[in-house]
Each structure stands twice: as structure tokens, then as C-alpha cells.
Amino acid sequence: MDRTALQFVINIMNTKTISIGVVLVAVVIGGVILFSGTGGTAGSTPARGISVVDGKQVIEINVKGGYAPRSVAAKANMPSVIKFKTNGTFDCSSAVVIPDLNYRTYLPSTGETSVDVPPQKQGTVLRGLCAMGMYNFSVSFE
Ligand SMILES: [Cu+2]
């Protein structure tokens, strides 16, 4: 009896040790992912949705029932491209206006449309909206 009780306690302790171990591993992995995530925005790696192709910053915005992401942080002082991506988009968000660039267009219901954006000063916020002004997005240059 005593033996089985002891065995029982040992088993519980083992499971506890294992679960603590699992939690620790999860915390470490989570920390690494978080760290690389923040490193991405602070360091030389561009933020999510932004890539640099041939020295040009490409800012991707998905268009369907609005714009996603609705706000993006991009790098100032470098030639950029806003790439609108549509995929079965039949709502008014496909009629895009970027007033500061004097740009307006009708995006195809499915496809990619690129708009050249000259280098922007730090602190500039470029806003875009649908023709009706219902949906909007912004790109802040930092
Ligand atoms: Cu609209």
C-alpha cells in the first residue's frame, strides 16, 4: 500500500516536472519568436507586409471590403511602391484614391496593381481611401 502511494506521489511529481518543463520550453520559444518579431520592426528587417525589392520598398495592401493592413509603418526617404492586391473584390474598396499622390484608379476584381510612391519625408502619413470615403488606410513613413 505504502509503496503504491509513494509511486503515486512520484508519478505526480514527474508529471509536474514534465509540465513545468513544457511550460518553460514554451516560454523560451515564445520569447525567441517575440524577440525576433520586435527585432524585425526595430532593426533592418522590414515590418510585416513590407519588403524591399531592387532597392524599392514594396508595401502590400490587401483590398477586399476595406484595406488590410489599415495602417502600415514604412521607411522614409526611399523609393516605394504600394502594391494593391485584390482577390474577388467587388466592393467599393476597389476604387482607390490617394489624394496626396493625386492618384485614383479602379483595381481589377482580382490582381495586383502597383503605384509608385516617391521618397517620403520622415513623419509623413500617406492616406488612401475608397472613392466613397467609407474605407481607408494609412502608410506612415518613419
Ligand atoms: Cu467605399
What does this structure look like?
This protein has one helix spanning 2-42, and strands at 50-53, 56-63, 67-68, 71-74, 80-87, 95-98, 103-106, 110-117, 125-130, 136-141. Strand 9 and strand 10 form a beta hairpin. Helices cover 29% and strands 38% of the residues. It folds into two domains: 1-45; 50-141, Immunoglobulin-like (Sandwich). Strands 1, 2, 3, 5 and 8 form a five-stranded mixed β-sheet that branches. A five-stranded mixed β-sheet has the order 4-10-9-6-7, with no helix packed on it. With 142 residues, it is α+β, with helices and mostly antiparallel strands. It has one helix and ten strands. The termini are far apart. The structure holds copper (II) ion. Copper (II) ion is lined by residues 92, 130, 132, 134-135.
List the helices and strands and how they pair.
Layout: H1 2-42, E1 50-53, E2 56-63, E3 67-68, E4 71-74, E5 80-87, E6 95-98, E7 103-106, E8 110-117, E9 125-130, E10 136-141
Parallel strand pairs: 2-5, 4-10
Antiparallel strand pairs: 1-2, 2-3, 5-8, 6-7, 6-9, 9-10
This protein binds copper (II) ion.
